Structure formats: structure tokens, C-alpha cells
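Escalation from tier 1.

The customer reports that the assembly of two entities below gives different C-alpha cells on two consecutive runs. Tier 1 could not reproduce it. I'm attaching the input and our single run for tier 2 to review.
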Amino acid sequence: MNEFELIRTYFQRDPLDPSVILGNGDDAAVVSQHSDFETVLSVDSVIAGRHVPEMCPPDGFAARLLGRGLSDLAAMGAEPQYVLLSLTLPSLEPGWVDHFANRFHQLCVRFGVDLIGGDTTKGPLSAHITVIGRVPKGSAVTRSGLKAGDDLWLFGPDLGGARAYLDVLDGQESDHELWAERYWRPEPQLGAGVSLRGTASAMIDISDGLCQDLSHVLDQAVGSASVKLQSKFIPLCEDLVERFGQERAMEYALTGGDDYCLLASIPAGLKVPEGGRRIGMVVKGESERILLDGKPLPDSWQLGWDHGR
Amino acid sequence: MNEFELIRTYFQRDPLDPSVILGNGDDAAVVSQHSDFETVLSVDSVIAGRHVPEMCPPDGFAARLLGRGLSDLAAMGAEPQYVLLSLTLPSLEPGWVDHFANRFHQLCVRFGVDLIGGDTTKGPLSAHITVIGRVPKGSAVTRSGLKAGDDLWLFGPDLGGARAYLDVLDGQESDHELWAERYWRPEPQLGAGVSLRGTASAMIDISDGLCQDLSHVLDQAVGSASVKLQSKFIPLCEDLVERFGQERAMEYALTGGDDYCLLASIPAGLKVPEGGRRIGMVVKGESERILLDGKPLPDSWQLGWDHGR
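Tier 1 run:
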């Protein structure tokens, strides 16, 4: 099977959305524009041996790829519309690709996106996904805008499960169904993202770890700002404390990557959309930017995931 | 230097175009929409050891990447506007990246595109570029529409030079300045692409080799169609015949990849934009789809580049 047959067989589907004027299969795709909206775009990668194990099951690869990409749109308050996929495969043998493509298309339908373009080539397993969505004009929620007086809210599942699953993959821990699910089936918080337009002063997805992503938001705060987190409000994934103890569970929750939650700052007193959990508050800048129960974060914590490591 | 410092240092520039509402540096970029236009999108990859040598000079890597991507927009008749870059690097050491980024930004300015998003990670050298442009509503030129009675036109430089340069890289041929330029500095035919809106019945870029890309256009022809090419009209790159003889020169020109020309079918009698060269005509379908001087293409020719090889 060559590249062109592979694309025709596995990746060409009729687009679901009428805004797709020309989908996969030409030099480029064509989609319509509407002046009431703005286009939101991002690209993300999943590299075998880095973001996922070297021998990666195709359905997990597909789910992590789409979850990771779409989470960026959720973090802007955007509705997803289209994806483009650049896929590098060690071989173009149908088996793995068949399973990958099936899962990928299933998830596209579920999230309401059309695969409108792509590229396939031979090489070490990796995939790069471009996600495209839209927001009503002027309503994208950015990382800039957090300020003293805001509360800090979390939207999405309990934290730390995906990080704990890395210990399972390393053979240090016995398997755990929920951690595996957090790792292999991340759920982009698209509904929450849309509901936070006009309410959140700033928003980010915490795929690189809560503290690291929070520090990006603090970099772009309005005026000087520090964040006070309260450990009793940090939602810990099932069995984290039991297996690792309170201290390490908290470290996993606050610094472990791959939690596809949204972190939003919301001015105190505003009505908060359903599903949010308040985990702290923003105060005027202090010497420490992030405090946990009034104390600096332990020096031993690596603040989050660095893709260059 | 970690991922975030690297992106800040090398890849964040202020956008040139006012349609960019939010550029690089948030979860996603935001650009405006205009209902008189349609958006054109494509993704392309350059993998070291496959599309370029394993040890690839950074400026050549940048030029091939952008050239390859933007050529897809040219082939739709689109004006380029934005790019997103997903870059995988063996190390995040500044040297190579510095040169790459400089060349990349230079070319972005030259082609009038803003880098609005990206992703950097560690791994075997590869880059995936998403290109985004626009066409006035309804004016994109697709691969479908070639029909008997059209002439076949080529826009861009003489053919076969980039293919010949592969023999230089292999050590089979002595170096050649023009071939090296064709290989390392492909020139997307953006002006020609725009000028062919409303004139070309079908268009494609011949990055995978003229005959292979022509066969994609024939797959989507209106009615049955064959193409008669005339070897005397095929523009051969400098010194091809001298070094390889007529037969092999023609093979390189018609099947070698990486010629970033546009191939357009235009109904006979229509005014053809400047710079076009007529290389053949479209007739009613015969048993052979592509004829060269009235004869089938030699069986020994591989029709073009297969990214899955």
C-alpha cells in the first residue's frame, strides 16, 4: 500500500459540516468564513517514546492526539470544527493504521470535527495535529487577564491520574483502571470552555502540569499577582493518596502533566458555570508567585512537563 | 534552554498582518474572518533522512519546509496568510535553531505570512507545517475539472534539477549550483497560482513528480481524458541532457519530485497568464492515460515520489 492508497482508504471521509467546501484529497482544503466569527488555530504533537510509549496502541494514540489538540481549543472557549493530521509511521502496513483511523474518525464524529487534510510519511511514529475552531468575534478567552481579586477555578476531572499512570508504565506501580483512562482517553473540556466565555478573565489548559501552566498565566497577569492554593480544595484522583501518600499525591496533582482540565480565573462574585471547582484565589503579588496552604511549593518539585527534556 | 524559552526566543514575533488578533504564545491563535473569502488549509512535513539528508543545514531545512507548504496554497490559487509550525529537534541547543528560525522568519516576511502558532519537542529531526491562506469566495482552483480540449501548461522553473541533485547528494554526480538551488530553495509559484483563478480548469503542484501528479488530476477529470505530452516542450533543467543523456533527463523531468511548479489545464483559446509554458494537450481517453510523443511512458519509470517508500 502506498501513501496515496493509504490516505484514500483510511483518511478520506465525506465532511459532516456544510462549511467544508473541499475536504481531504486536493492540494489543500477549503472552508467558508463568516464575519461574525474568528478562527482559532493550534498545533500539537504526539511523539512515540516521548509523549506515549514507543509501542503505542493505536486507539490510545488517536485519543491522546485528539484530546491534546482539542483541549487547546477548549482553553480559548472555541468550538472545534476541523483538524489536519500529519502522520509519520514506521511502516504503511494496514493493521495499526486501520485501528488508529477508526478510533480517530469515531472521536472526530463525537467532538464534531471534520478531518479536512493531512500528510502521511514513513519514519519514527509521531503525529502532529492542527486543530481549527471558532469563537464569536471578540470572545476568545486568552491567558492574559488574571488579576488580584479573582478566584481560581478548575473544570474537568480529578488531578494526577495520568501522572500516576506513568509509574504503571514504568513498572513501578500495579495497573489502575481510572489512571489508565486518564492517560489514554483524555477528555477535552470543550463544553466548559464555551461556557466560560465572558466569565473567565484568563484561561489555560493544564496539560503541562497545573503549576507550570498557572505560571504562564501569572506571566501575563494584569498588575502584580500571586496565587494562594488550598490543598483541601485540590481534587486528587482516586487512590493517589492511598498509593503514594498525601505529599506525593499533591505533587502529582499539581505538577503532573496530561491532566486535560481547564484552569480559569474568574472575578469573585461572578456566576460560575456548572462543574467548576474553586481551588484558590488571586492576591496582590507577593515574593512567592504560587503558595500552597500559605507556604512556597517544595523545592524538590519539578514544576511541570518540559517537552525539551 | 527549555521548550518555552526556545519558543519565546526564536519563534515569537509580532504579527505583520492586522487580521491576526492573537499570535503565537497562547493556547491557540485567533484570526479574523471575512465572508467575501474562503480559508484554504494544508499540512506538509519534512523528515530528516527522508525528504532531506539526515544532517540537514538549517537554512535549507527552513526553505524546503516553507516552499513545500506554500506550494500547496499556490496550487489552489490562494494567497498565503499564516503558518503553524510543529518542530521536532534532536536537541534544543540554540545553534541550529537560531539559523533555522532566522531563515524561517526571513522567508515568512518575503512570502507575506505570519507564524501564528507552533509546538516544539525533542526527537528525530522533522517539521510539520500547516499553511493557511484565502481565496475570494468560490475561486479556489481544484484538481478536478481537466477535460478533453484543454491544453496543459507549466508555471515555474525548468524541471528535473532537484531530482538530479539527489545524485549529487548520493555522491554519484559532481555538485551543480542550479540543481542545488532547485533542491534547497524551492520557489512556490504563488503569483502564478493567483493569476490562474478563473482560467485553469484544474491545477496541482508537481512536488511528487509531474507524471504522478498529473495522474491525480486525470483521476478527477471530467469525462474520459488522456494527455499527450511533447518532449520538445518539456523544459529541462540546465546540464541535465549533458550529464545524463536525453532519455534519463526526460525521466528526471517527468518523474523526479521536488519541482515546485504548477501544472494547470486550460481550455484551448483562453488567454493564458504570463510565464506559462504549454507542454501538451488533453484528448478523449485512450488506452494509455499519458503519452509522450505519441508513445506510452517507458515501463522502467517509477512515476513519482511515494512518501511511504
